[in-house]
Amino acid sequence: MGDALSREAVNIEALRFLRWKDDRQLAALPLGRRGLEEFGAPYYTLHRADLHRVLRDQLPEETLQLGAACAGVKEPGDRGVHLALADGSVSEADVAVGADGIHSTVRTVLAGDAPHYTGHVIYRGLIDAGKLPASFDEPVVRVWMGPGRHVVAYPVEAGRRFYFGAIAQLPHWHAPEWTVPADRPTMTAPYGDWSPAVRQMMETAHEITSWALFDRPMLPSWPGRHITLIGDAAHSMLPFMAQAANQAVEDAIVLAACLRTARAKNHAQALRRYEQLRQPRIDRIHRLSRANADTFHLADGPRQQARDASLPARWTTQNLRWLYGYDAGHLDRRKVAP
Predict the structure, then answer these.
(1) Which label site among 92, 135, 248, 322 has the fewest CB atoms less than 10 Å from its CB?
(2) Which residues 6+ apart lie within 8 Å of 102 measured at CB?
(3) For the CA atoms of the chain, what is the radius of gyration?
């Protein structure tokens, strides 16, 4: 998908951490050519809908069936799975993969937990690139860290638009849905004394939405005999490492490799191997994502000063090779085989 992604995405040159009030740079992770050399691939930003379209275009027309919401899953002995659809029909399969997000229906077969609200919301908005100052034309990811909240911003849609996500604390979420249209004054109020660049994005953005951030505990084990999970259905992640979508893609690649192996006719064995390969990495990223909910939101003071001083040594290509240099598509076949 490389050519199609390169047309839709922005090749990011650096990830920059900035002070919330005055845009002072605290640390920068060089990407661009340096990232390509260190990690073997570019660091892209793109709109989720564009990624979906690129993925969809790889599929034969008959593969994707829309309007077939899953209402339940049953595993009748060793005969694969039965999928109950919302229209009352039933579909059969050798293996069911729950890729249905944090509110997963498929997960209910494997676990009795439920999503819980974390006390954080994220306001998301899009801005036409021409409506921002020329300084925003630089292909970088900006992260402003401040007391109780942070803001992330980067270009998408091949640079035609700019995205921002502003995370703030909100003790209670009363809306029946987990995403609703945002009220601009409510969004901007907590950022009144922040950097003018942050305030300008918020005042200029259109299509503003508010998303409640939910979380679920990590499962000690997630596959059944013919049922497994990928992405947020398996391991929901707070957006403080920017890894949820990436880990879903990695999951899919590793799962496909396990199912393709010569011994994968034993589906339960292949699903167990998939879990064994993914669990340590997912656990580590999940823990870091939760920890950053505190680290990114420190109030000004000694802890914040110590964090800022440590950032340049922590955010280096060498330290992050384990994260960005991981190649799910080239796992040793001996590791994939059950």
Answers:
(1) 135
(2) 115, 214, 215, 216, 232, 233, 236
(3) 21
CA distances from residue 332 to 115, 121, 281 in whole angstroms, order as listed: 35, 40, 16
CA–CA dist 29, 313 (Å, integer): 10
| Helix 267-295 and helix 244-260, axial crossing angle in degrees, nearest 10 | 170
Structure token pair of residue 134: 């020329």
Q: Round to whole Å and give the CA distance between 187 and 124.
A: 10
Judge residue 242's burial from the number of C-beta atoms within 10 Å of its C-beta, 0-12 exposed, 13-18 middle, 19 or more buried. middle
Q: Which two three-digit tokens encode residue 68?
A: 């077939």
For residue 21, give both structure tokens. Answer: 């009030």
Kindly tell me the sign of the dihedral angle through the C-alpha atoms of 125, 128, 130, 131. negative
Nearest to 282 by CA among 224, 217, 329, 211: 217
Strands (E) located in the chain: 10-11, 14-19, 25-30, 44-45, 70-74, 81-85, 90-93, 96-98, 116-128, 140-146, 149-156, 161-169, 179-181, 206-215, 227-229
Q: Which of 43, 123, 154, 274 is catalytic?
A: 154
For the stretch 27-78, pLDDT in tens is 999 999 999 999 999 999 999 999 999 999 999 988 888 888 999 999 887 7
Cβ neighbours around 207 below 10 Å, total: 11
**Is 117 an active-site residue?**
no
Using the structure block, give the residue that is written with the tokens 């992604």: 5
Distance CA 203, CA 76 (A): 55
Q: Write down the residue that tokens 């992770």 correspond to.
A: 29
Q: What distance in Å separates the CA atoms of residue 238 and residue 215, rounded to the nearest whole number? A: 7
- pLDDT value for 296: 94
CA–CA gap between residue 185 and residue 309 (Å, rounded): 34
DSSP state of 139: -
